[in-house]
Amino acid sequence: LRLGILASGGGTNLQAIIDQCLAGSVSAEVAVVLSNKPQAGALERARRAGIPVAVVEHRTHPDREAFDQAMVEVLKKSGVELVVLAGFMRILTPVFLEAFPQRIMNIHPALLPAFPGIHAQRQALDYGVRIAGCTVHFVDPGVDSGPIIIQAAVPVRDDDNETTLSRRILEQEHRIYPQAIRLFAEGRLRIEGRRVRITPPLM
Ligand code: GRF
Prior knowledge:
Elements: E1 2-6, H1 12-22, E2 29-35, H2 41-48, E3 53-55, H3 64-77, E4 82-85, H4 94-99, E5 104-108, H5 120-127, E6 131-138, E7 148-155, H6 162-185, E8 189-192, E9 195-198
Parallel strand pairs: 1-2, 1-4, 2-3, 4-5
Antiparallel strand pairs: 5-6, 6-7, 8-9
Helix pairs in contact: 1-6
The structure holds 5-O-phosphono-beta-D-ribofuranosylamine.
Family: Belongs to the GART family.
Enzyme class: transferase
EC number: 2.1.2.2
């Protein structure tokens, strides 16, 4: 399975996916890493792993649709079969979604549908929840609203701040994202309306 990873930040989720693919525990390969930020740490991680990289900057395109079309062309040229958003901080338009129907995954650092959008970890702390976590889902036209594949929960401690909670959640992100990609590569995910059926079930 050829993966196209989109990242705007440091790329620790990208690194976890690269490591699991190299270890052979996920039968997939990272075909290209694409960023909208030329200085993204994720690009450096890709280069170190010998993975092709591409930069598509949104300000060099007249509008969102043209930007998305440019990214689609890079991904199609690389033969990408599954798009993985790993800390990608742009909203995708139907131009992109229609190029990869039901083949785009995202990870969000909260137990959706709670706390969609940015600073999810801070939203959880401000709300005072006792349990936080992360969600891997298929991307649909909404923001953080697509069919959920896997979630993981972590406790929120009284002395937690955004950094300590984010770190605890990130550890789980690095576990469930490769797992979700492995399930997809094994053909074990089936989208049924809002729900994703895993066959055979996990556990
Ligand atoms: C993570 O918190 C992830 O949940 C969110 O963006 C952050 C990216 O982290 N999507 P990294 O760039 O993978 O380290």
